[in-house]
Specification:
The chain has 14 helices and 9 strands. The protein has helices at 21-34, 52-60, 78-88, 103-114, 124-138, 156-167, 191-207, 212-218, 246-257, 287-305, 312-339, 346-369, 380-386, 390-406; strands spanning 11-13, 37-44, 66-74, 95-99, 143-146, 175-184, 187-188, 228-231, 263-272. The radius of gyration is 21 Å and the shape is globular. 44% of the residues are buried. The mean pLDDT is 93. This is Glucosyl-3-phosphoglycerate synthase. It comes from Ferrimonas marina. InterPro entries: Nucleotide-diphossugar_trans (IPR029044).
């Protein structure tokens, strides 16, 4: 059973009683009469053939309170899009599959790209950005959740707990972040959060001890969780990062746009396991190596906007401080694992810390070498100003694809 301790400046909603999901869903059904609810699922086509996504869809079929499900489909040919339409047709809720690689959405993307307004690289950030635009364009819901499609331990209670804080009309939260313990197969997971983000935050706090941004980040129990929920109006001014810094970037945007008493985090699962990225120690453009660079850059960029000055000497100090703190954390996590009967490979943990320390320097040098880099995709508010009919065209493209290929 979780504790009820409140740490940091973000409200934490705990799982204290293991409340039955049916009870929560009955409340959510009532809330949905006042505030319609939706779900965004960013998916790769390849995930349709994994154990995770079919099980997720089976769980979602029993969810009674959703008015809309938006599936963003990446890396799909025409035949694969047809298959995806058939695969998701079992969902009883109103749903649409955005064929991001289809000619209609590609044409719209190309026009936005010509104006410098589209994501400049493929990936989850681009997928999520178009799904959010479609949610705004259709206006069918007032609150919506987002979660990944590779969750092996998925249960519909995860969604109920995730969306509840922004669904309950008696709450004033605009944004909610999910958290959980990352453990599976008898060991602790979540290396990037445990061994990069938390130690790096602590190291940066030694450079800027009064940073409200770092205090804010340090309040989240799992800052890299891919599960969020929002009120719909949040999405108009949200700038989505297009790289691996998506989760950290979204947190920074929420801090920029809202008071912290409008934000919260919620315990959504006792156990959570999903697809694991390789460390990719030999390839800085892939896996956890690429992720660690993008996340570090995202944090450096945000601190620079608050007046922190970066130079090679500062980067070396941050790296050295990070390295010492991260090594101490390995001992902490090892002991936590042992008391819970889990294993932890100290050699692999230290290898990850060594790689992350190197990548902190790489991230800093990239930041210094390219100060004009702007990884954020423009907000939909700006897009609508530049192209007033973009929502109508986006909906028309999705509907035309659905009508032509659904058969």
């Amino acid at each position: 059973m979780a504790d009820y301790y409140q740490n940091g400046i973000i409200t934490t909603l705990h799982n204290l009683t293991r409340r039955p999901v049916e009870e929560m869903e009955a409340e959510l059904c009532r809330f949905s009469q006042v505030r319609p609810l939706g779900l965004v699922l960013p998916s790769l086509y390849s995930e349709l053939d994994t154990p995770a996504l079919p099980a997720i869809v089976e769980q979602l079929k029993a969810v009674p309170y959703l008015s809309q499900i938006i599936i963003g489909l990446d890396r799909a040919s025409e035949d694969e899009y047809r298959h995806a339409l058939s695969f998701f047709s079992q969902l009883p809720q109103h749903h649409r599959v955005l064929w991001n690689d289809g000619p209609r959405l590609r044409a719209l993307d190309a026009e936005l790209m010509e104006r410098g307004l589209a994501p400049d690289q493929p990936g989850k950030g681009r997928n999520v950005w178009y799904c959010f635009g479609y949610a705004l364009a259709t206006g069918r819901v007032e609150s919506l959740a987002l979660h990944d499609c590779d969750i092996l331990t998925y249960d519909r209670s995860l969604l109920a707990r995730l969306i509840y804080p922004v669904a309950n009309p008696n709450f004033n939260y605009e944004f909610c972040k999910g958290f959980y313990a990352r453990l599976a197969n008898g060991t602790l997971n979540g290396r990037v959060t445990r061994l990069l983000v938390t130690p790096l935050i602590r190291a940066l706090k030694k450079q800027v001890p009064d940073s409200d941004y770092l205090e804010y980040l340090n309040s989240f129990r799992y800052p890299l969780a891919g599960e969020f929920s929002f009120r719909l109006d949040v999405l108009r001014d949200l700038r989505i990062p297009s790289d691996w810094g998506l989760e950290i970037g979204v947190l920074a945007e929420m801090k920029r746009n809202y008071a912290t008493n409008r934000l919260c985090q919620v315990d959504i699962a006792d156990a959570y396991d999903h697809k694991h990225q390789d460390l990719s120690a030999e390839d800085a453009s892939a896996g956890l190596s690429r992720m660690s660079i993008d996340i570090s850059k995202a944090m450096f960029r945000k601190l620079a906007t608050q007046g922190m000055v970066f130079n090679p000497g500062v980067l070396r100090t941050i790296k050295a401080t990070y390295y010492r703190i991260a090594l101490d954390f390995i001992e902490t996590y090892r002991n936590d694992a042992l008391i819970n009967g889990l294993d932890l490979d100290v050699h692999k943990e230290e290898a990850a810390v060594e790689l992350f320390a190197e990548n902190i320097i790489k991230a800093g040098n990239q930041f210094l070498d390219n100060p004009m880099e702007t990884p954020f995709v423009p907000s939909w508010h700006r897009i609508c100003s530049a192209m007033p009919d973009v929502f109508e065209r986006l909906v028309a493209a999705v509907e035309a694809d659905h009508k032509e290929f659904m058969g």
